[in-house]
Amino acid sequence: MIMERVSENIGILGSGRVGRALAGKLASAGHAVTVGTRDPARAAASWSGARVAFGDPAEAARRAAIVVNATPGDTSVERLGALRDALKGKIVIDVSNATLRAEDGLPGSLLYPNDSVAERLQAALPETAVVKTLNTMLFTVMADPTSLGVRPTAFLSGNDESAKAVVARLLGDLGWPADWIEDLGDIATARGPEAAASLVPSVLRRRGLAPFAIALAR
Length: 218
Fold this sequence. Notes:
The chain is of the alpha/beta class. It is 33% helix and 19% strand. It has a single domain, classed as NAD(P)-binding Rossmann-like Domain (Rossmann fold, 3-Layer(aba) Sandwich). The chain starts with 8 loop residues before the first strand and ends in an 11-residue tail after the last helix.
């Protein structure tokens, strides 16, 4: 049975490489996408992908039923916490990693070594369903998982089962087959995928921005 594609109003908070990759692919899949950024005019002027709207973060959150957190993980709780009312009753997909900066500018040690940014977001947004996913790969793989020679894994963590089902469907629109998605359980399970960020600086120093992802062999 083929599931009917459902068009969603999606907000992307952040207009960096992660936000742009996801915005373009989701817009190409037929979703109405609004990118929330501090300088909408500047972001719009440099955009060349599928049609998306631009606005400030609060506007993007208000318009959307589903919001993707593509902001830096070390500031995500503060930024999204300020949008608590606009995010009430919605799904937040958290793809961030919370790390300190190393001296060379690359991600360094974990900001929340015994916790996770996803858990902190859920605590700050009690009336929002937070789902963690896509943080264990380079941004290019998020929207093009079949580009790798080995199939990657998209991990899911969240307390709301219906919200995770919606996110799994959106992952399908990004090119993720259902059997490449691994539901780990509640939001506390985000600690494992977030801990994988400790690998990233070593990989980047050795390989640069070559696409990579963590894969669960099974």
